[in-house]
Amino acid sequence: MESIKKLINSGNKNFVFVGEAGSGKSEISINFAQFLNQMSDKQVHFFDLDMTKPLFRSRDICEKIGTDGIVVHFQEQFMDAPTLVGGVRKLLKDENAYVIMDVGGDHIGARAIGGFAKEINKDNTVVYYVLNAFRPWSYDIDHIDKTLISILGASHVQLEKLRLINNPNVGFDTTPEEFVQGCEIMENIVNPYMPIDLACVRESVYNSVRDEVKVEVMPLHLYLTYPWLQSQ
Q: Can you point out the beta strands (E) in the chain?
């Protein structure tokens, strides 16, 4: 992944993923951690900061991620009480470690990183916002602005830190044509304001679409899906 390599070569070491619940940020952040783990000898630390209790969370496959050499950090919840894992600030400052932060959906989840805003807003950190043209919160620029304003306000992350990832899908069976359509829709919506770094697609259709869109395509191995689909 050339864009990821460029970010690393530019001195970035911390990568934060935010977006609405269901945007696919957990799946993307897990795959991003795998890429980092393959590209560098630095230890990769993965923080599951999702406290909104969605259907799938990255902590659900922590054993799998851990066997790949990635250190997974999360705090078990007591009932519905929000809990925050320790050690975040120390590792954000550690130049010998990469940090991936999977942040819970919408502005409520974004509050989890508000206390780390000073470190996150430094030059060595990238904040990715995940878009999907097929979801209500990404239908148009007004919906995107509304969601972003609430997330940035809750997290205290500076707007200039933000980068965009497009995850155009309508579900597990998203076709190559739907992916290309989603890329075109999102390009028309946001490119007048900000560029899109990456578009994500499941690995089984990656080869058929990688040269069909203007943006770099990131193949996703789908870890967080229903058991009967995991072998597909």
A: 14-18, 43-49, 71-73, 97-103, 125-131, 162-166, 196-202, 216-220
User: In the sheet that 162-166 helps form, which strands lie side by side, from edge to edge?
Assistant: 71-73, 43-49, 97-103, 14-18, 125-131, 162-166, 196-202, 216-220
Looking up tokens 């899908």 gives 169
pTM exceeding the 0.90 threshold for the entire prediction: no
Helix (H) or strand (E) holding 165: strand 162-166
Q: What is the pLDDT of residues 33-53, one digit of tens each?
A: 999 998 888 999 999 887 655
Amino acid at 119: E
Give the DSSP letter of residue 214: S
pLDDT digits (tens, 9 = 90+) for 89-116: 999 999 999 999 998 766 677 887 888 9
